[in-house]
Amino acid sequence: MSKHTSITEFLKQHLQGEHAISLNAMLSDVIDSCKKIAVAIDKGAIAGNMGSLVSENVQGEVQKALDVIADEIFITCNQQSGYVAGMLSEEIDDIIEIAETHKKNGQYILLFDPLDGSSNVNVNISVGTIFSILKSTNKNPTLADFLQPGTSQICAGYALYGTSAMLVLTTGNGVNGFTLDTDANEFYLTHPNMQIAVNTQEFAINMSNYRFWHEPVQRYIDECLQGAEGDRKKDFNMRWVASMVAEVHRILVRGGIFMYPIDTKTKNGQPSSGKLRLMYEANPMSFIVEQAGGAASTGLLRILEVQPSALHQRVPVMMGSKSEVDRLVAYHSRTRSSKS
Ligand code: AHM
Ligand code: MG
After folding, report:
1. What's the pLDDT tens digit per position in 51-71?
2. Contact 277, 91 (CB under 8 A)
3. Ligand 2 centre from 53 Cα, in Å?
4. Per the domain annotation, does 196 fall within a domain?
5. pLDDT tens digit string along 94-126?
6. Number of domains within the chain
7. Co-location of 159 and 284 in the same domain
8. Which of 43, 149, 337, 340 is most buried, most CB within 10 Å of its CB?
9. Which residues span the domain enclosing 275?
10. Is 183 in the same domain as 236?
11. 91 lines ligand 1 (CB under 6 A)
12. Under DSSP, is residue 129 helix (H, G, I), strand (E, B) or coil?
């Protein structure tokens, strides 16, 4: 018997209010899918799960990239509770409709990135799954039902497939982290009431984009790099895993700031609006970060208050220790007011 509380027991004890029964059923399916994805990741190349394309191996067997496998697992498992009315995946352009037989009590929308950081798969570095749950007013949700701001989320979480597999969750009442015991095939509460340190000396950003950033982000990073000799009067450390789940998890454990800002690059002739997706990356992670005492901003707006206009919309992301996010927001507002 583990001395830790199992996630099943924890949810039974802690979920309260109007969503308790439905959330319990939905989270049980989310948990199952994350366990299955963890197994597929563990097997890696042995199961032919690597590579970046759906392809055939020499025996003519179909090999699938892990992000396709993770997506299929997540979609299949999460139709079972009967509470999900519609889904949105990073891997699929359109809304995923749920068969009538699967939505007896369909009142919720599940949004997810089945395998975030998947460029890390072939080099055996941490990846994760991110999810967000919204209430739907409609049993057959339309685009308008999906386009709710992050403040409407009733639950968000991520699984991190790292040195151990972990599941981190919020239902708007703090953040709790669970570690997968692979022998028992159960997650146990190992990180209760996670809190982000207010002050930090660690930042995460893809430095290769420096010349494309706007001035407030360049200024913030310049000051971090100047360290003890500069205005910040302290040295900073830098990390970049290229997996948002791993960066946010590190911030929950030891503080720091993670940024994927807007830049001056263009894609298909369109100006950049950041790399990360609002609905199933930025919003769930912002909900978790705020619930752990941190902050999350685009630089100009609280991420959770951004009104979505498209399912796969991208946003600039700055999240983590509150004092650092506040500083970045102040740099952005100074630039804005000096231009007006
Ligand atoms: P993905 O959803 O296609 O994996 O992309 C999101 C990932 C984030 O996890 C990570 O922060 C970022 O992309 C890494 O970007 P870069 O390739 O610039 O390092
Ligand atoms: Mg992603």
Report:
1. 656 655 555 555 568 989 999
2. no
3. 17
4. no
5. 999 998 888 887 899 999 999 999 888 888 999
6. 2
7. no
8. 149
9. 202-339
10. no
11. no
12. strand
